[in-house]
Design brief:
The protein is of the alpha+beta class and 377 residues long. It contains 11 helices and 18 strands. The protein has 2 domains: 264 residues, 3-Layer(aba) Sandwich (Aminopeptidase), CATH 3.40.630.10; 102 residues, Alpha-Beta Plaits (2-Layer Sandwich), CATH 3.30.70.360. The radius of gyration is 24 Å and the shape is elongated.
């Protein structure tokens, strides 16, 4: 298996280059579907059956399973979308410098798409039957919260024992054993317009009311316990000499434990149930769209097995917690033992400096193949 992966590294880099040079931002359905079609052919050549789940707004999702598999125990998730707008790949295409490769989405997660494919091909080449014990979902909207695929992931989680999430390993090579959950909310305030010079007393400022609410909401922050509330965008009013009759705030909350969601939402609703500026009205809309991935007993046990595999390969495995979200939240919340960060090593995702450590391709492809083998025995 090791020899096969070593001999395929140039081939893997060529495929990564092809994928990176295809724009596939979450809103770019044609680009995502181009990547999906390419990967569909690769998996079909390897002996897998692919169900294409068509989407109108987003790229199509792919469910991949070996034709001989009946009840695969390992669920593997990877996404085809990136955060970059159309034209980015043309502006700064894939390139390699020393031991690093650069380009939009190179580590999050075009390289992971390739290491997953070749880990399974390596198992097949070795004559192992364990490459059949997986079900793979390649979705198209992870970067925007998986609005059209989270139900697909939750449904696929039923009956699975393990979930491996192909987000990249951290810069130091750590896997991800816990993630914070998050929710997005919109606060709308309605006031009464009036000329600020002629009859300001007749106005009811929506902006003033919103200012009160922003301060009160930010007082819910409890960073020590992993709770953060952030009003990131505000807008309102129509002119500088008019008392504003409308104002809006967009905010995000992050939580570390599932039980925190109810408590934070109740406090938010309480704050928004009353006004500080008489005559204004408030509406609050939103929900938790990713539950937290907690480092629970199931996930710890899976991590222990992966560490054991790493020890056998001479790879030191460490783990970490992160505030960022991923589809690991859905599988973990469904009761499936989950570990994230199973992709290659890199960093600076979502930026112009995003990179892949080329030397990690061999190590992490081998690790993934061996973990699949271990979990299937």
């Amino acid at each position: 298996m090791e020899e096969y992966i070593k001999n395929k590294q140039i081939e893997m880099l060529k495929l990564i280059e092809t994928l990176v040079n295809i724009d596939s931002g979450s809103g770019n359905k044609p680009g995502i579907d181009k990547i999906g079609s390419l990967l569909k052919r690769k998996y079909e050549e390897a002996g897998y059956t692919i169900d294409v789940i068509p989407q109108i707004k987003y790229g199509n999702h792919l469910i991949i399973q070996h034709r001989d598999a009946s009840d695969p125990e390992v669920l593997i998730l990877a996404h085809m979308d990136t955060v970059f707008p159309k034209g980015t790949a043309l502006e700064r295409p894939f390139r390699m410098e020393e031991d690093k490769a650069y380009g939009p989405g190179v580590i999050d997660m075009k390289s992971s798409l390739v290491t997953l494919l070749y880990a399974l091909k390596a198992l097949k080449e070795e004559g192992s039957v364990h490459w059949k014990n997986v079900q793979i979902i390649l979705n198209s909207d992870e970067e925007i919260g998986s609005p059209s695929s989270k139900n697909l992931i939750s449904k696929a989680s039923i009956g699975k024992k393990y979930a491996l999430i192909m987000e990249p390993a951290r810069k130091d090579g750590s896997l991800v054993s816990s993630r914070r959950g998050k929710g997005n909310y919109t606060l709308n305030v309605t006031g009464r317009a009036a000329h600020s010079g002629i009859e300001p007393e007749k106005g009811r400022s929506a902006i003033e009311e919103l200012a009160h609410k922003v301060i009160q909401l930010h007082e819910l922050n409890d960073h020590e316990n992993g709770i953060s509330v952030n009003v990131g965008l505000i807008e309102g009013g129509s002119s500088v000499n008019t008392v504003s009759d409308h104002a809006t705030a967009q905010m995000e909350i992050r939580i570390s434990e599932t039980d925190q969601a109810t408590s934070v939402e109740e406090k938010m609703e309480e704050i928004c149930s009353r006004t500080d500026v008489p005559g204004t009205e408030i509406t609050l809309e939103g929900e938790i769209n990713r539950p937290p991935m907690e480092k629970n007993k199931r996930n710890k046990q899976l991590l222990k097995r992966i560490i054991s595999v790493g020890d056998e390969l001479g790879i030191e495995i460490t783990d970490t917690s992160t505030g960022g979200g991923s589809d690991a939240s859905f599988t973990s919340a469904a009761g499936v033992a989950t570990i994230d960060g199973m992709g290659p090593v890199g960093g600076n995702a979502h930026s112009e400096k995003e990179y892949l450590e080329i030397s990690s391709l061999f190590e992490r492809t081998l690790l993934l193949a061996k973990v699949i083998e271990n979990l299937s025995e």
